[in-house]
Specification:
This protein is α/β, with parallel strands linked by helices. The chain contains six helices and seven strands, in the order αββαββααβαββα. Helix content is 33%, strand content 20%. The strands form two sheets. It has a four-stranded mixed β-sheet. A three-stranded mixed β-sheet has the order 2-3-4.
Length: 144
Amino acid sequence: MSSETVRDAMVPEPTTLGADQSAQEAGRCFAENDEVRALFVVDGDGKLVGVLTRKTLVREVVASGRTPGDVRLREIAEPPHFTLDTSLPLDDGFRQLEEHDLERVPVVEAGGRLVGVLSRAVVQRRLAEDEPPELDPDPGSVVL
C-alpha cells in the first residue's frame, strides 16, 4: 500500500450543495437519504466552503427559528477543521485520520477544490485486504 495516495482510496464525488442554496434544500437532501451523514458545501468553482450536518441544520436553523428557505448554506456551513490533499501517501492520510480521531475527511486538490472524501472504514478495509493472513507459529502443537 505504500505507493498508494489518498486519491486512490477516496470516495469520489461526495454529496455537495452550492453555497447559495438554501437550508431547506439541505434538509430535503437529508430527508431523501438517511445514509448521508454530511453535506459538503462548495462555491461556484467547486472549492470547499464548509460541511453541514443534520445537527448543524437543526441548531442553526430550526432551533434558532429561522426560515429554512431564507438561510443560505454559506451562512451555516462549518469550515472544515481538516482536509487532505489528493497526493498525500495513503499511509500518512490514514495516520492523520487515526491521530485526529476522524471518521471521514474531505479530500481537496490544489486551490481547495473538493474531489472526494477519505473514510476511515474504507481505508481499514483496504488495509485488511493488503495484509497477509496470520500464520500459526507452531501448527503442530496443542494447547490444553
